[in-house]
Design brief:
alpha+beta, Glutamine Phosphoribosylpyrophosphate, subunit 1, domain 1, five-stranded antiparallel beta sheet, 5 helices
Length: 223
């Protein structure tokens, strides 16, 4: 079943480039930093869209900033409460299901401004295995087995990933591919840019491996 056309349209127009790649040793998650207001104004040049929310889970989001910030706070708190109640750390799948439930509830409840957020959820389980999921703004849940992109830059990214992704690629190869994917989208998508953040998720934990600014380079024209 397809996501509602209006929801999909709003996600693609919010101005974001997200990339998530499944590698041999784990997962790579990357995003740009630009926040766009409407169709013509850059509101923020340094907003991090990929964030660890605890020591085993990373979330990337495309959509409304307020909805994304609310979602991250709710999920971090709920996962901590669940761990305290059960004395067992939630799995990545359980965490993704929680994100999906919150997304479904938020979009179905009557509201003047419903939360519209597309999300990637990646993490590692206590046994060292890693998992990656996509949660749609409508609460849909999809396990990602190779790679996926999201946001307005998605159309510029998927073609690159389709040609260059290799099953079983290393984490280092995945990081390089993610950086190239974000650079490709920021060259053509007017709603993405200004920086690149890349995280790796392996059995050894979560690491931020790329923290780059994308700055304009003004040069004299060659006559």
């Amino acid at each position: 079943m397809e996501m509602d056309a209006e929801l999909k349209s709003k996600i693609l127009n919010t101005g974001t480039s997200l990339v998530s790649i499944v590698c041999k040793e784990g997962i790579v998650m990357a995003s740009d930093r630009q926040v766009t207001g409407g169709q013509s104004l850059v509101m923020d040049k340094n907003f991090q869209k990929t964030n660890p929310i605890n020591d085993y889970l990373v979330i990337s989001f495309a959509g409304q900033v307020s909805g994304a910030q609310r979602l991250v706070k709710i999920i971090a708190a709920e996962l901590k409460l669940k761990e305290l109640r059960t004395r067992v750390r939630p799995s990545v799948q359980q965490s993704a299901n929680l994100v999906a439930a919150v997304a479904y509830s938020g979009i179905r409840q009557p509201s003047m401004v419903p939360d519209i957020v597309d999300t990637f959820v990646g993490g590692f389980n206590e046994d060292g295995s890693t998992e990656l999921y996509q949660v749609g703004a409508d609460g849909s849940l999809l396990k990602v087995k190779d790679y996926l992109a999201d946001g307005s830059g998605m159309v510029y990214i998927l073609g690159l990933l389709e040609r260059q992704y290799k099953k079983g690629m290393s984490i280092d190869e995945g990081v390089k591919l993610a950086v190239e994917a974000i650079k490709s989208s920021t060259q053509r998508d007017v709603f993405s840019g200004h920086g690149i953040d890349v995280y790796t998720i392996t059995k050894d934990g979560i690491k931020k491996v790329v923290d780059q600014d994308i700055l304009p380079d003004y040069k004299e024209s060659k006559k």
